[in-house]
Design goal:
Length: 139
C-alpha cells in the first residue's frame, strides 16, 4: 500500500514556528516514527509552500497511490484550485490539521477542501496524520 503525505505552506517550519500550537517536533522526525509504526506501507512525503506544486503533486500521485493525507495549511481556507484537483483524481484524500482549527480564528473554520475529501481529522497534533493513515487501513 502506498500513502502520500502532502504538507502545504509553512509546515516546513514545524518544530520551530508557534510551538504552543504546533509542538516542538519537526515533521521529518515524526515521519520516521510513522515509517517505523507502519513498516509494510510505503509512506512518501512532499511539502511545498507553493499552491501549484501541491496541485501538481496531487495530479502526479492521484491515480496510482492508495491514499493521500493532505495538510494544505492556510490553502485549506482559500484554494478552490486544490479542491478541484482533489475532485479530479481517483485516490482518496483525507484532510488533516495538527491544531483544532475550530478553536482558532473564525476564518479557519471554513474548509474549501473538505467537500472533496473523504474526511477531515483535526486537533490531534501530529497524531492527526497517523489517524488518517489508520483510516486507509480499515477500508
Amino acid at each position: 500500500m502506498k500513502i502520500q503525505i502532502i504538507n502545504g505552506p509553512n509546515l516546513n517550519l514545524l518544530g520551530v514556528r508557534e510551538k504552543s500550537i504546533y509542538g516542538n517536533a519537526s515533521f521529518e522526525s515524526y515521519l520516521e516514527k510513522l515509517k517505523e509504526l507502519y513498516p509494510n506501507l510505503q509512506i512518501d512525503y512532499f511539502q511545498s509552500n507553493i499552491e501549484g506544486e501541491l496541485i501538481n503533486k496531487l495530479h502526479e500521485v492521484g491515480f496510482s497511490y492508495n491514499g493521500i493525507v493532505l495538510n494544505a495549511g492556510a490553502y485549506t481556507h482559500t484554494s478552490i484550485a486544490i479542491a478541484d484537483a482533489i475532485a479530479a483524481i481517483n485516490t482518496t484524500v483525507i484532510e488533516v490539521h495538527i491544531s483544532n482549527v475550530y478553536k482558532r480564528e473564525e476564518f479557519r473554520h471554513t474548509s474549501m477542501l473538505a467537500a472533496s475529501c473523504k474526511g477531515v481529522i483535526a486537533g490531534f497534533g501530529m497524531d492527526s496524520y497517523r489517524l488518517a493513515i489508520e483510516s486507509f487501513l480499515i477500508d
